[in-house]
Amino acid sequence: MQEDKRFSDILYAVSQRTRTVLERLSPTVKANTSEIRMRLGLPLALTVGSETVFVRENGQTQFFLSPDLFKISKADLEDSFKRLCNNSVFAHENELKNGFIIMKNGSRAGVCGNIGENGAFRDISSVNIRIAREILGCANQIVRNYNNCGLLIAGPPGSGKTTVLRDLVRQLSNGNTGRLRRVAVIDSRCEISGSLFGQTVADLGANTDVLITEHKASGIEIALRTMFPDIIAFDEIGTESELKSVSDSFCAGVSIITTAHAGSITELKSRTVTNGLLKSGAIQQVAFLPNIHGGKITLFSTKELFCDAVV
Description:
This protein has 311 residues and is an alpha/beta fold. Helix content is 31%, strand content 23%.
């Protein structure tokens, strides 16, 4: 089972004691786990679907706290952190300044602890491994209704925005909407492509170029000038400079596909940057994702969003 392989592929990055427990999980739990959370002195927790479950030492899971749950020790966290860094914190210094480590298979580990003045982590208190997932076809509903225009994929945290974006890029790049489209992916955390040392792990299609940069605004400008894309795709628009770059791309005739965190349409419209994006003219469609992967995606035109009936 493919999802079991993705689960087993990330176990190199946890302590041996923790790994032994995780290997005892049932195939169903492994296949549906999207996050592994290790917190100092607290129970090992998983995100399964949209729910938090705790793990016992025998690999059984439960939704409630109890004294017999498997707890993460300081040694577990220190060992896991070393494994994540391949025993070289220095090699991951730039990533850690942003609070995460890119893993071998395109997954990502968020890190919390004491951040020193130089941005270095010490006294690690928690690690959250997010398992990169590919669900081929999860963007089918969007593809069927895509108008070859600017698109914003919105939804609450954990709703699968990056997973849907990844599949949408693949389908557009491969010509599933009628013609091949040149797509430039601006990947600030290697989360879309799963790139490591230039090798893209995720299937982003045969007509896609990937630019790895933590500065999305400059990345958009570089892609616009050098790759001549039909579409520029990236995750999570969040700053005024990114908004300006999006507007410049729109004026250059390039479509933008991006994502945004929002629990509702009202929330989406209330944020300065996303509201500006929706009013910029660069976005003509919004795909709003449900809380749980696989639910119905609701599509709106930008004009519809600003009708009082849509909240």
